DNA sequence: GTCTATATCATGATAGAC
DNA sequence: GTCTATCATGATATAGAC
C-alpha cells in the first residue's frame, strides 16, 4: 500500500510481521503468490457481494431495467462496507487495491482481469439495459473512466492529503469519499453524447486556434 | 511507461538507447534525476501552455467568469496537442505521465506536486468563478476525481480495457479518447450536490439492508 | 514447520584508464 | 566525455539443521 509491489521487499514484510524471511516462500511459494493471496482473500468476497446485490436488484425489478443509480450503488456498497470494517482491512485494503489497479506488473494486470472479468460483464449488461440510448462503445468507455476515478480515489495518494485539508475535524473516511464520488460518476455516466456536449464545441473552437 | 520507474533498470534503458551504462550517472547524476529530466522536458511546456490558455480565456471574457466548458477544454487541449505530436513523445509521453501519477515513490509525488501546484490553483480559482453555487470543498473533490479519470485513462492499462471489450485499435487514438472523456468530466463537474443526487438516496436505502 | 545460512543474481553507482 | 571493470548492496529463493 505504501510503496507498491515492486518496491516492497520480503525482508521488510517479514520483519514487520515478526516472522522469518523464509516463511513466505514456504507458505506461499513466491512473493507474487503471497500478493495474490492477500488480494484474493478480500477481493473475492467483495466481488461476490457485488454480483449478489445486482442479482437481487434484477429480481426485484421483475423484467424492467434496474435504474442507473441502483446499479452504481450496488457496485459501490460492497467496497463501502469493506471500508467500514477494520477487521477486514478497512480502508487500508482499498488503498492497496487502488495501487494494484495502477501497477504495471503483468502478473497483477492478469490477476485483476481474471478477478474482475465476470463482475464487469454483468454490470455492463445491466447498465446497457438502464441506458438503452447509450451506444455500447460509449458505455464501455464510461465504465473505464469510472474505474479510473474510483481506483485513483481509493489509492488515495493525494486523497488523504485532501481529506486532511478539507475535513480537518472529520476522520479521513472512505464513506464520505464514496458519497461524494457517486454523484460525480452518475452524472458522467448519464452525460450527453460527445456530439451533443457543450464541451465538444469548445474543443473544436480552441483546436482551431 | 511499460514497467514503472522502480522496475526499469538503468541497464535496460542504456542498452535500449545504445549508450553506456555510466552515461546516466555522468550526465544526470542519478536514476531519479534522469526521470525528472525526462518528465520536465515535456511537462513544463505543457503546463505553461495551460496557464497561457487560461489567461487568454480570462482576458477575452473581460470581467465575466469563463464557462466551465472552456476552462475544462483549456486544461485538456495542451495534452491533446502533445498526444498528436510524435516528435514530442506523443501518446507515449502521456502514458508515461499517467503512470507517474500512480507511482507511490515519494520523490515522484513531490516532483509532481511541485510541477502542478500552480496550474491546479489557477484552474481551481477559475472553476470556482464559473460554478459559484458549488462549495469550495466539493469543487476540490471533483477536481481530484477529474485528475484520477484523466491519469488512469492516459496511463492506458490494457488489461482492464480488454475486459470492457474496447477496441485496442481505437484506444491508440488519444484524441478520440479525450473527446469522449471531456463530456464525462464536464457532467461530473456540474453534477448535483451529493445531498441532491439520486444516487445518495439509493446508497442510504441499500446500506440500510 | 521454523529457523539459519547461503546461493545466485541484478541493481545503482563509481573509479580510473583512455 | 566515454568506456571497462568493479564495488557494495539488496533482491528472491533455497538447502539443510533442528
Short summary:
The structure is a homodimer of 209-residue chains. Chain A is an all-alpha fold and 209 residues long. Chain A contains 10 helices and no strands.
Commentary on this structure:
2 copies of one chain form a homodimer. With 209 residues, chain A is mainly α. Helices cover 75% and strands 0% of the residues of chain A. Chain A is built from 10 helices and no strands. Chain A has helices at 10-17, 21-28, 31-60, 68-84, 90-102, 106-130, 136-155, 159-166, 174-189, 198-208. Chain A is globular, with a radius of gyration of 20 Å. The relative contact order of chain A is 0.10. The model of chain A has no long low-confidence stretch (mean pLDDT 88). Chains A and B meet through helix 4, helix 5, helix 6, helix 7 and helix 8 of A and helix 4, helix 5, helix 7, helix 8 and helix 10 of B.
Amino acid at each position: 500500500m505504501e510503496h507498491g509491489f515492486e518496491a516492497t521487499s520480503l525482508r521488510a514484510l517479514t520483519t514487520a510481521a515478526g516472522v522469518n524471511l523464509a516463511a513466505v516462500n514456504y507458505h506461499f511459494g513466491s512473493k507474487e503468490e503471497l500478493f495474490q493471496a492477500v488480494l484474493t482473500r478480500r477481493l473475492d468476497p467483495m466481488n461476490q457481494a457485488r454480483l449478489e446485490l445486482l442479482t437481487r436488484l434484477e429480481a426485484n425489478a421483475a423484467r424492467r431495467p434496474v435504474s442507473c443509480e441502483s446499479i452504481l450503488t450496488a457496485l459501490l456498497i460492497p467496497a463501502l462496507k469493506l471500508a467500514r470494517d477494520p477487521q477486514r482491512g478497512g480502508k487500508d485494503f482499498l488503498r492497496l487495491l487502488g495501487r494494484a489497479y495502477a501497477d504495471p506488473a503483468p502478473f497483477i494486470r492478469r490477476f485483476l482481469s481474471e478477478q474482475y472479468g465476470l463482475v464487469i460483464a454483468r454490470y455492463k449488461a445491466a447498465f446497457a439495459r438502464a441506458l438503452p440510448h447509450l451506444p455500447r462503445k460509449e458505455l464501455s468507455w464510461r465504465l473505464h473512466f469510472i474505474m479510473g476515478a474510483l481506483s485513483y480515489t481509493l489509492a488515495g495518494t493525494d486523497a488523504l492529503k485532501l481529506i486532511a485539508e478539507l475535513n480537518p475535524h472529520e476522520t479521513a473516511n472512505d464513506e464520505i469519499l464514496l458519497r461524494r464520488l457517486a454523484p460525480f460518476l452518475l452524472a458522467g455516466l448519464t452525460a450527453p453524447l460527445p456530439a451533443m456536449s457543450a464541451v465538444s464545441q469548445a474543443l473544436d473552437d480552441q483546436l482551431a486556434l
